Amino acid sequence: MRMILETRRLILRELCPNDFHEVCKLLQDNEVMYAYEGAFNDTEVREWLDRQIKRYAEDKVGLWGAVLKENGELIGQCGITMQSYREQTVPEIGYLLRKNFWHKGYATEAARSCADYASHILGIKRIYSIIRDNNLPSQGVAKRIGMTPGDTIVKHYRGIDMPHIVFSMTLGE
């Protein structure tokens, strides 16, 4: 498990197959997964985890495990993924935390660190967060790290049309 970033309270590291049960705590919680229209089953969790591991190999980025420094507990995921947006592929900061770690500043801390990593390590000039329109807490994180809304799109997922707001910011200025 390769460490990617370190913040004041967190370590962001690559996920591995052994993280399956910890990732289930996140992705199998209906409240956490409301923006995805509900919790994932075991197969969907395995596919999600496999997709992150594939991203690390192919894109050199992905959603990384967010681990508390104080005790090594995996509390969620935050990272950079390559996403389709208006017929292009853009780097997106994504974040998802277990419910008992909401409203403690962890998502903002991790997302800000990912933006710095995107700018200083990867040389990315513009970063995005494509957030479901009903996901106000995630929109708040995007705003707190300096992103602004600039577009809306509809993603089709799990048989549902889901409006999303496209947040972005220029890096390195």
3D structure, described in words:
It is a single chain. With 173 residues, the protein is of the alpha+beta class. The protein has a single domain, classed as Gcn5-related N-acetyltransferase (GNAT) (Aminopeptidase, 3-Layer(aba) Sandwich). It has four helices and eight strands. The strands form two sheets. The protein has a five-stranded antiparallel sheet, sandwiched between helices. Strands 6-8-7 form a three-stranded antiparallel sheet. Helix 1 crosses helix 2. The N and C termini lie far apart (32 Å). It comes from Barnesiella intestinihominis YIT 11860.
Task: Describe the secondary-structure layout.
Layout: E1 3-6, E2 10-13, H1 20-27, H2 42-59, E3 63-68, E4 74-85, E5 88-97, H3 106-120, E6 126-132, H4 136-144, E7 148-157, E8 160-170
- The overall average pLDDT, rounded, is 95
CATH structural fold name: Aminopeptidase
Q: Record the strand order, biggest sheet.
A: 1-2-3-4-5
CATH superfamily: Gcn5-related N-acetyltransferase (GNAT)
Unreliable stretches: none
Strand elements, count:
8
Number of discrete helical segments: 4
Order of helices and strands: EEHHEEEHEHEE
Structural class: alpha+beta
The Rg value, from CA coordinates, equals 15 Å
Distance between the termini: 32 Å
CATH class: Alpha Beta
* Helicity, as a percent range: 25-40%
How would you sum up the major sheet?
5 strands, antiparallel
Shape: globular
Summed up, the domain count is 1
Strand residues, percent: 35-45%
CATH architecture: 3-Layer(aba) Sandwich
